[in-house]
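step=encode ok
step=design start
structure_in=
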């Protein structure tokens, strides 16, 4: 061993499957904490999702190492119409519970009823699921964009002082919810499906 270099030991498939169980456990724990008001857990969620899904030329995702990216993925996001002049929030719904009808709450969609849409991984991972529109400006995010922006610049795995403009722009927007809206209400979560990441996929039948 030289310096801080440590010899690598190849892990068995069983070892990798255990790492998958660990990451799913982290997701469930963070979702429960998020539901109880610990909204900073979104950063831990992003990091776990990055480990599960993100692949580069030099590294392979955890699900990729297990060959699980080849299956079809359930897509709970609603269809996006690029001609729409209002913001699109595919992974959440807006619910008006006040008698006045003026105060929306954001709630995760969960699993919709009826026939579920299934997509190839790259399409599921990269298609726009949020499009924020303010005036002439439009900023879109895919699942990949949401996860990597939070994990790689905003405190999931790294903190970068000059974070991506799209992230800062989105964070300061009021395009998705009016200024009078309330924070997300507590929603009990028994699976890793809390905002803003949507549901983990199911195997195709």
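sequence_out=
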């Amino acid at each position: 061993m030289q310096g801080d270099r440590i010899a690598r030991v190849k892990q068995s498939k069983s070892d990798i499957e255990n790492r998958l169980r660990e990451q799913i456990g982290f997701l469930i724990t963070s979702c429960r904490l998020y539901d109880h008001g610990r909204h900073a857990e979104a950063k831990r969620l992003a990091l776990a999702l990055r480990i599960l899904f993100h692949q580069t030329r030099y590294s392979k995702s955890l699900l990729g190492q297990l060959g699980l990216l080849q299956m079809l993925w359930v897509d709970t996001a609603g269809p996006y119409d690029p001609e729409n002049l209002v913001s699109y929030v595919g992974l959440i719904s807006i619910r008006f519970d006040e008698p006045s009808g003026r105060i929306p709450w954001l709630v995760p969609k969960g699993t919709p009823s009826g026939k579920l849409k299934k997509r190839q991984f790259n399409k599921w991972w990269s298609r726009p699921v949020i499009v924020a529109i303010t005036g002439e400006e439009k900023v879109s995010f895919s699942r990949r964009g949401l996860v990597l922006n939070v994990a790689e610049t905003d405190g999931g795995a790294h903190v970068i002082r000059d974070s991506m403009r799209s992230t800062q722009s989105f964070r300061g927007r009021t395009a998705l919810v009016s200024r009078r809206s309330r924070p997300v209400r507590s929603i009990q979560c028994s699976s890793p499906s809390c905002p803003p990441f949507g549901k983990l996929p199911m195997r195709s039948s």
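step=design ok
step=annotate ok -> The longest strand covers residues 128-134.
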